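subagent[fold] <- orchestrator: predict structure for attached chain, return tokens only, no commentary.
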Amino acid sequence: MFEVAQHLVTSADLSFHFSAIDVPSNLHFHIADLNSHINMDLLAQQFKQDVMGDLGKGWNNFVKSGQIWALIIGVVVGYLFRSITNA
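subagent[fold] -> orchestrator:
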């Protein structure tokens, strides 16, 4: 099986010829023309976000929902459990 695969790879013409591609003769591709095809609005979008305001709202929700107490209790119980099992 390996010999057949090796024969196929060695006998295959691995060279690439541009003449094998059916390209119209009037098609010209230049790197400079690529700039006209890129939508700059997609690359440079601006967002109006208040990151610190969002963090403040998140913290206030964390405190109002009572999750702060779950965090404090979890830290205390975790510290006690660590101190018991570490001995």
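orchestrator: received. Logging for downstream: The two ends are 63 Å apart (CA to CA). The chain has a mean pLDDT of 74.
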